[in-house]
Amino acid sequence: MIQHLLPQSVEPSVRAEQIRLLFVQNRSVQVLGILTAIITAITLWKVTDHFLITAWIILMITVYFMRLATTILFFRTHTNNPSTEIWVRRYIFWTFLAGASWGSLSFLLSPEWPAAYQVVLFVVYTGLIAGAFNANSSVFIAFPAFYLPIVVPLMIAMLRMKDEAFYALALLFVIYIALMYFSSLKFYNQLAYTLKLRFENESMTQELSLYNEKLTHLADIDGLTQLYNRRSLDRFMIAEWNRHYRNKQPLSLLFIDIDYFKQFNDVYGHEAGDKCLIHIAQILQKNAKRSSDIAARFGGEEFAIILPETSSTEAFKIAEKIVLCLEELSIPHTGSSTSDNVTMSIGVSTLIPQQPDNSELLLTSADKALYDAKGSGRNCVKQALSPEL
Questions:
Q1: CA distance 121 to 171
Q2: Where are the alpha helices (DSSP H) in the chain?
Q3: Which residue in 2, 105, 106, 312 is a FRET match for 170, CA 20 to 30 A apart?
Q4: Residues 184 and 284 in one domain
């Protein structure tokens, strides 16, 4: 039963957001509090001691400015860390002083006041408490920290009047405060639940985003070599072709084929073949140095490298370096008719695109150069016939 009368415990992330909302909702409240205090003092000026009401308004303005300063400092220094609780304590402290300052006005209440002025005081108090409900209920303790210092002195002042009307009014205030308490409790718990759901949804959204990134990665990357696959190669090829068409820059493409790779698998097995492919992929990745260079595997033993803004001479040198790197590995291949080690044939093509969406020209040209390399005995680099770029 008692647990239903107390606020729910919350997770740290929810707590931090509740505190942030507390300060967000109170930025304008401080200014309105000062204006309300000034209007109240002016209204009660005729029925109260001038010295006391002046001292009271000075106190109110000081407290509200300190609350405002605390709010400003919070937004300047707050970084969502455990020290957030320090800001809560500071807020509660100044909120309690604001409530106590308002409550001290009750001691000026006198049965000699005209009824209209008594009504003004009660209306101000009920309005303040109602306003504090919206402003302070995101952190449960903040609301009673404000209204209790108002209500307790008011109850004492009304009971001292020794008048049945004031006794009845005091009872009505007790009922009003009880209603505000349970309303605030319900608001707090609903807000906590809503924030919890929000953070859970954000967490799920983030997880889904990560899964989507992984799926995209799996869809674009060759599982064995971790190079881009044929799907990615085609997409990049179209994009780079159109970009180079706009910039009128040379675009180079290397088509690479491992010589007699079927025989390598027959002699050494598919496991050794996979290791060989991984080694070659590492060589290609090493020589595709720039962030814009794209190395891909688009067949069993077939690879490609897109070299943006690369002349035919530069592309040919890169191809020769790749062949040399493979020779240095000296991977045995007794099933080859070209060498005792694994070798490769490379076709190189370079074009400056003259029309958009026509990357097939470069693909066809590089494929023909690769065919020429195979026809020339393999283990070599051949360049497609094109103008020197």
A1: 16
A2: 12-25, 27-44, 50-77, 84-104, 115-136, 142-159, 164-220, 230-247, 261-268, 270-287, 312-329, 360-375
A3: 2
A4: no
Does a structural domain hold residue 129? yes
pLDDT tens, position by position, 204-260 = 888 888 888 777 767 789 989 999 999 999 999 999 999 999 999 999 999 999 999
Residues 256, 350: Cα–Cα separation, whole Å: 15
Domain at 258, CATH number: 3.30.70.270
Q: Considering 301, 327, 328, 360, which one is annotated as catalytic?
A: 301
For residue 210, count CB atoms less than 10 angstroms from its CB and return exposed for 0-12, middle for 13-18, buried for 19 or more: exposed
Q: Flag whether 313 is in a domain.
A: yes
> How far apart, in whole angstroms, are the C-alpha atoms of residue 240 and residue 308?
7
Residues 183 and 275 in one domain: no
In a domain, 210, yes or no: no
> For residues 295-304, b (16+ Cβ closer than 10 Å) or e, as one string?
bbbbeebbbb
Q: Using the structure block, give the residue that is written with the tokens 């690769």.
A: 370
Same structural domain, 234 and 199 = no
**The Cα angle at residue 304 between residues 302 and 305, in degrees rounded to 5:** 160
Task: Give me the residues paired with residue 174 across strands.
Answer: none
Q: Is 348 helix (H, G, I), strand (E, B) or coil?
A: strand
Tens of pLDDT along 151-173? 999 888 888 887 888 888 888 88
Final residue belonging to a domain, choices 166, 189, 204: 204
Beta bridge partners of 297: 303
Q: Which residues of the chain have a pLDDT value below 50?
A: 82, 387-389
The pLDDT, as a whole number, for residue 388 is 41
Structural domain of residue 116, as residue ranges? Answer: 2-204
Task: Based on the fold, state whether residues 240 and 311 are members of the same structural domain.
Answer: yes
The radius of gyration of the chain's CA atoms, rounded to the nearest angstrom, is 40
**Do 64 and 148 have their domain in common?**
yes
Number of folded domains that form the chain: 2
Q: Are 352 and 244 in contact (CB under 8 A)?
A: yes
Residues 259 and 313 in one domain: yes
Query: pTM surpassing 0.70?
Result: no
Report the half-sphere exposure of 124 (CA within 13 A, side-chain side).
Answer: 25
Active-site residue, 240 included: no
